[in-house]
Specification:
alpha+beta; single chain; binds cobalt (II) ion; 5-stranded antiparallel beta sheet
């Protein structure tokens, strides 16, 4: 398993609902956490590792949880945003876009319904950074990438870096 990089077409493939939480499923999410920490990220969607299912992992500490860092590992399975409000405009990055950061306008508060790794139906309400991360990962599950939501100014700023990634993917560099 590895994190796919833009413009890999697999990143645009939407995830399918998870039917059953198996040991294999849990082993794959554990591997996703490992890859996410290695890349110092705080969220990773299954579609980013070429696994087209509706699940993402989150840990705002961006490193394995300890007593000190306050980190918490969350696995969101078949998640749905059931409420959102407010507006924010914050800079985001994405593990599938090394070196690319840009501003995205999103809801400031979201209510998310999902199944956890034990299959328990869960509802959380978040605002600020966790709310942004949730919306970013939800987009991945629909095959949607953050560059399509960037403000025009950010799109212009990252255009040359995207060209670089496209050239690398095509094997031209
Ligand atoms: Co991302």
């Amino acid at each position: 398993m590895e994190i796919l990089l833009y413009p890999d077409p697999k990143l645009r493939v939407p995830g399918e609902d998870v039917k059953k939480i198996t040991n294999e499923f849990l082993a794959k999410t554990a591997e996703m956490f490992r890859l996410m920490y290695e890349a110092r990220g705080l969220g990773l969607a299954a579609t980013q590792v070429g696994w087209p299912v509706r699940a993402f992992v989150l840990n705002l500490a961006a490193e394995p949880p300890t007593d000190q860092n306050g980190g918490q590992e969350t696995i969101c399975i078949n998640p749905r945003i059931v409420g959102e409000s407010g507006r924010c405009n914050e800079e985001e990055g994405c593990l599938s876009f090394p070196g690319v950061r840009g501003n995205v306008v999103r809801s400031d508060k979201v209510k998310l319904e999902y199944y956890d790794e034990k299959g328990r139906s869960t509802v959380i309400e978040e605002s600020g950074l966790p709310a942004i991360a949730i919306q970013h990962e939800m987009d991945h599950l629909d095959g949607r990438l953050f560059i399509s939501r960037m403000t025009l100014a950010s799109k212009l700023k990252v255009a040359s870096k995207l060209k670089e990634l496209e050239a690398q993917f095509a094997g031209e560099v």
